[in-house]
Amino acid sequence: xxxxxxxxxxxxxxxxxxxxxxxxxxxxxxxxxxxxxxxxxxxxxxxxxxxxxxxxxxxxxxxxxxxxxxxxxxxxxxxxxxxxxxxxxxxxxxxxxxxxxxxxxxxxxxxxxxxxxxxxxxxxxxxxxxxxxxxxxxxxxxxxxxxxxxxxxxxxxxxxxxxxxxxxxxxxxxxxxxxxxxxxxxxxxxxxxxxxxxxxxxxxxxxxxxxxxxxxxxxxxxxxxxxxxxxxxxxxxxxxxxxx
Length: 244
Hints:
By secondary structure, the protein is α+β, with helices and mostly antiparallel strands. It has two domains: 13-79 and 217-238, Pseudouridine synthase; 82-214, Pseudouridine synthase. Helix content is 26%, strand content 30%. It has seven helices and twelve strands. Strands 1, 2, 3, 4, 5, 8, 9, 10, 11 and 12 form a ten-stranded mixed sheet that branches. The chain has a two-stranded antiparallel sheet with strand order 6-7. Helix 2 (33-44) runs parallel beside helix 7 (225-238). The protein is elongated, with a radius of gyration of 20 Å.
């Protein structure tokens, strides 16, 4: 059984989740983080549930959910370092820095060498300044940036300091560049992809992303969402009904 679910069979399902659980979920592609929270909230019949760090719809991987009294742990998980794997596509940019919007203005990348691409990672290791993408869940004056971006509006955003602890190129299949990144809270991998392409002079966008770790919690220990749904439904028959 994946980690993050400690069922006490002397309690009902609702009582277990009210008592507090930390759930490790492998978020599916095209689900929003809120979609996962909403689904599980309905499934376990409890209002007090939240997640520790948003994943974009086009990203997959580890999403930590906390229920009941364990929601106090959310800030702690959010502060932990994160590990991601994925790919950049060089020579094409998008408005959203990923595939939420269509790639435009293809640029020839044939002059780039493998060494040049790999050596560029050094410029993005350590403390760096990064501007969040307009297509993000950050709020400005109470409004989500991605909602403004979808209306064609743009706001000048201030850069923020983030830390890239590790950044390596694991495979080159140009124009696709596969990577692994370990970073601090608040890092946008989409912005990293865009900035990486700018330094190379050809542009880039994020073409795939998977969060593999948050602190000591690994996606290898996470529930696939359909399996978690089936497991919780099975508890209906295993746990006793509330006593009158």
